[in-house]
Amino acid sequence: MTHRLRIAYAGTPEFAVPALNALQDDGHEIVAVYTRPDRPAGRGQSVTASPVKRRALELGLPLEQPATLRSPGAAEQLRALGADLMVVAAYGLILPPEVLAVPRLGCWNIHASLLPRWRGAAPIQRAILAGDTQTGITIMQMDAGLDTGPMLLATATHIGQRETAGELHDRLSTLGAEVIVAALREWQAGRLTPRQQPVEGVSYAAKIRKDESLIDWTSPACAIDRQVRAFNPWPVAETRWEGRQLRVWSAEPAGCDASGIPGQVIEASGGRLVVVTGDGALSLTRVQLAGRRTVTAAEFLNAHALAGACLG
After folding, report:
1. 308 lies in a domain?
2. How far apart are CA 39 and CA 13, in angstroms?
3. 218-242: per-residue pLDDT in tens?
4. Are the beta carbons of 150 and 196 closer than 8 angstroms?
5. How far is CA 76 from the centre of its chain?
6. Between β-strands 39-41 and 204-205, what pairing exists: parallel, antiparallel or unpaired?
7. Rounded to 5°, angle at Cα 284 from 282 and 287
């Protein structure tokens, strides 16, 4: 039976909510939930609580929302909670060495990749962009480096051929909750030994930039397909049509011969919107003009004539 631990939990986005629920459900005492301060969000830029904060309030858990953990007293505040362990999932703030050293069992991170591949901020999107067929969750003992600490437990999962970043995010979020609970049980049973990460196979998942969303039609169809899936739901792959932004929410390699200039629309009928790329053709299936709703290719073609048009 799992011994009840006193856990400080640190997370901010939706990704971190299932793990918080799982730790609570497994009988551990959540002595505090750390999350980022409320921030403006949405078109109205109204100040909004993070998903983790909202869930913590629903559960009646103590909240901490420091702007930084580097401030004097942050380590002492954590020490006063008497936490055995701090569990971190997409928190968004750096934990300095003096904070990492406070909990008796240290700080464990729920990371959305199979380390050492895709250390850093955007492992889910980078895995899809690179054409990886596998990813997973790694529970890692945190150190002062960027996702460089010893590994405790890793679980792999296949990346679907048509899976978007949003879909993979949700699956890994659920998997992360399962793996952190399993890791704690294995640790308490004496069956886990921290393993240093291999020096081979290290890659870095840099934060996604908005300008990466612009489609380069000279790229191969398979690469653009990965771009579309990796940037759904944010920042969403986009191109230009008659000087207007055209967002591409979903697409797939067309599987047909393609001749023409990259970006040229070679099929715009029967619900198919097919565009030439640097290698092959891409069929756009869901698109959105700036300021309009997302529509299927068939709906878009019913309202707009694109035969022979050039995108980009």
Report:
1. no
2. 12
3. 999 999 999 999 999 999 999 999 9
4. yes
5. 31
6. unpaired
7. 150
Distance CA 23, CA 27 (A): 7
- Please tell me the total count of domains within the chain: 2
Choose one of 172, 205, 238: the last residue of a domain.
205
Measure the CA–CA gap between 183 and 276, rounded to whole angstroms.
Answer: 48
CA angle 120, 206, 71 (to 5 degrees): 55
- Amino acid identity for residue 76 in this structure: E
| 309 part of a folded domain | no
| pLDDT, mean of residues 48-73 | 95
Distance CA 162, CA 180 (A): 27
- Contacts of residue 12, Cβ cutoff 8 Å, sequence gap at least 6: 35, 36, 50, 51, 52, 90, 91, 92
pLDDT band for 2, please (50, 70, 90 cuts). low
Structural domain including 141 reads: 6-205
Write down the pTM of the prediction. Answer: 0.95
Q: What token pair was written down for 18?
A: 């299932």
